[in-house]
Design goal:
binds alpha-D-galactopyranose; 11 helices; single chain; Alpha-Beta Plaits; nine-stranded mixed beta sheet; Ribosomal Protein S5, domain 2
Length: about 400
């Protein structure tokens, strides 16, 4: 990887990720191909541009890798990838926001953001060829904020690589390929929530996602609803947090339950409260709490989906608040800043409910707000956040967005 060259200096200042990615690609290509002057990029065609959104998860935290239920919503913040094919099989990738460039040959195994690009290309190459390409990436999804910037990167890179290679995949298959890339290439034992959200969410809707059957159903959010993100400014890193520990605790709890219940349990999805209560004493206390979270969280997702479909936003808000308590107390993936963000939101007029979103241990909280009170609630939370949540807290509204797409084909 070559760091810190100045190809972006020539790019005009542009505001959206799509504009910045296109400008960065143009500057990048104009800068030439120092490493291999025999393989210049193909510059005639306009670039292919793919965008994929970040997400918040309204309810359904840490259920995905337990075959459970989630209710995410894609946000109107995106990773954009501008791409053009090359005549060789190399990927030359410019991360405009980091001012960094990576040059990847098939089989390379880089670190950092380039690991996601290499892993997606590697998985997509298993079925059919992926052509070499110049890629430029720009994003307005904050990183480390629990909004799944990594899945947005994977999906946008994947869609762009398929397009420059003349290939296509149904969105769910691309999501699964990107999920494998994250697990195998980056080492997070995550579930499918983030990749399915970035792939399959629809505008103006939340997505009811069954992680066992992988069936999805869009649930319209309604015009009168607003969504606020409260980014605590405490960065989380799934590879370094207790995330994989939670995955293992769930697996160990499932093993214990199989043994004592003498039942065929495929996953914690097959466990209900009656089964848990019947065998609670046989489980280590920490495992009991983890299972209780997963079982009750699946129920909260069902409730929230039904309530949202019925326009009962108070009930959705209650499910979010109960989900946060469960993630804090039973699953132990919250942190003081997230708890403070949820508490602050919950006491703000117009807020139906709030909870931490994403893996936890930092990152963001999401709040569901009466659309008419949104501006006022945002102002109130923004004003109190530095003192109540933390000096780097950021508060912004977002709209439910569509999943990954090629720009020009919306
Ligand atoms: C992270 C993971 C997801 C999911 C959430 C928690 O975002 O990548 O797979 O487990 O945490 O719900």
């Amino acid at each position: 990887m070559t760091d810190g060259d100045d190809t972006d200096d020539a790019a005009p200042t542009a505001s959206t990720p799509v504009e910045r990615a296109k400008a960065a690609l143009a500057a990048f290509e104009a800068d030439g191909d120092a490493s291999d002057s025999t393989s210049p990029p193909t510059e005639s065609a306009p670039p292919t541009v793919a965008v994929a959104p970040g997400r918040v998860n309204l309810v359904g935290g840490h259920t995905d890798y337990n075959d459970g239920l989630c209710l995410p919503m894609a946000v109107d913040r995106h990773v954009a990838v501008a791409a053009r094919p090359r005549s060789d099989d190399r990927l030359r990738v410019r991360a405009a926001d980091f001012d960094e460039t990576a040059e990847l040959d098939p089989g390379d195994d880089p670190d950092g953001w380039a690991a996601y690009v290499a892993a997606v290309a590697r998985v997509l190459r298993e079925d059919d060829p992926i052509d070499g390409a110049d890629l430029a990436i720009a994003s307005d999804v904050p990183t480390g904020a629990g909004l799944s910037s990594s899945a947005a990167l994977e999906l946008s890179v994947g869609r762009a690589l398929l397009a420059v290679s003349g290939r296509d995949l149904p969105a769910a298959d691309l999501a699964l390929a990107c999920w494998r890339a994250e697990r195998e290439g980056v080492g997070v034992e995550c579930g499918i929530l983030d990749q399915f959200s970035a792939a399959l969410c629809e505008a103006d809707s939340a997505l009811f996602l069954d992680c066992r059957s992988r069936e999805t159903e869009s649930v319209p959010l309604g015009d009168g609803v607003g969504v606020l993100v409260i980014d605590t400014g405490v960065s989380h890193e799934l590879t370094e947090s207790g995330y994989n520990d939670r995955v293992r605790e769930c697996a160990a709890a499932l093993d214990s339950l199989r043994e004592v219940a003498d039942r065929d349990l495929d996953s914690l999805r097959d466990v209900d409260l009656a089964l848990l209560d019947a065998h609670a004493d046989a489980l280590e206390p920490v495992h009991r709490r983890r299972v209780r979270h997963v079982v009750t969280e699946n129920e909260r997702v069902r409730n929230a989906r039904d309530a949202l479909a019925a326009g009962d936003l108070d009930r959705v808000g209650d499910a979010m608040l109960a989900a946060h308590d469960s993630l804090r107390d039973d699953y132990e993936v919250s942190c003081p800043e997230l708890d403070a963000a949820v508490e602050l939101a919950a006491e703000t007029p117009g807020v139906y409910g709030a909870r931490m979103t994403g893996g936890g241990f930092g990152g963001s909280a999401v709040a569901l707000v009466d659309g008419d009170a949104l501006d006022q609630a945002a102002r109130a939370i923004r004003a109190a956040a530095p003192e109540r949540v933390g000096p780097d807290a950021d508060v912004f509204a977002c709209r439910p967005s569509a999943g990954v797409r090629l720009v020009g084909e919306e």
